[in-house]
Amino acid sequence: MYTERKEDLSVYYFLKDVVFLSTPFVTIVDGFPEGDLKLPTVAVEAGRIDVVEYELGNRVGLRVRRWYIDIYANNKSQRDDFGYKLLDVLKDPIPVYNYDEGFPPSVSPTRIGVLSILSKSFDPIKISADVVNKLYYRATVSIVAQNDRS
Question: pTM for this one?
């Protein structure tokens, strides 16, 4: 499995097993939600990858990645609470695990690095009150991170 996919899974399991562990009524999905949307849902989707050259003669470079964490909520207060919670908890690095060894809860894979958060943002999506029942209360938290392999 590519390191990038291990990072994607690490962000997903971080949300599922750490951030929203105390709120089991929240559905966490990897990628855009498909089928009937059960509120509240938090969806994580990998975004852009930039490779930045940082050392003469080194062709690997630094990989800077972006993730989009979409929040679908029952109301404005719930949407904002989840967004603020994410901004607060994402001050610390996200551990990256070797999922070639298996997946939780049956396996506790080895830690192979951490995603150091370089920047983060919370962007509530404004929806007209007449269509909120069809479009839900939504927001996107985006993070930019770099894998500091340990």
Answer: 0.88
